Amino acid sequence: MNLDIGLPVELLRQPLRQCFSGESKLERLAITATNRRGRTIQLQVSCAPFKLGDNSNWGAIVMMEEKT
Q1: At a CB cut-off of 8 Å and minimum separation 6, what does 20 contact?
Q2: Annotated domain spans of the chain
Q3: Segments of the chain scoring below 50 in pLDDT
Q4: Alpha-carbon distance 47 to 12, whole Å?
Q5: Domain 9-66, CATH 3.40.605.10 — does that match?
Q6: Alpha helices (H) along 3-62
Q7: Phi, psi of 36 (to 5 degrees)
Q8: What is the DSSP letter of 68?
């Protein structure tokens, strides 16, 4: 959560916790970020739990899509 990039990763903390805990099957949020050229962009970010065969939560998958 300490990445120094144009994405405000601190906004992902709570959605990721909900996925890790099994509290949520899918979290979606809109985030304003800065691309590598310094331009402001709008992203749709989705987080989903990554489960093992025994159905235990092992991690999370985070997908980002630029909203146009």
Answers
A1: 49, 57, 59, 60
A2: 9-66
A3: none
A4: 9
A5: no
A6: 13-21
A7: -70, -10
A8: -
32: tokens are 């304003």
Where is 19: in which H helix or E strand?
helix 13-21
Report d(CA 24, CA 41) in Å as an integer.
26
Instruction: Tell me how far CA of residue 18 lies from CA of 2, 5, 6, 7, 40, in angstroms.
Output: 19, 23, 23, 20, 27
HSE toward the beta carbon, residue 3, CA cutoff 13 A: 10
Backbone angles phi, psi at 30, to 5 degrees: -100, 130
The tens digit of pLDDT for each residue in 34-53 reads 988 889 999 999 999 887 77
State how far the Cα of 35 lies from the Cα of 5, in Å rounded to an integer: 9
Contact 28, 16 (CB under 8 A): no
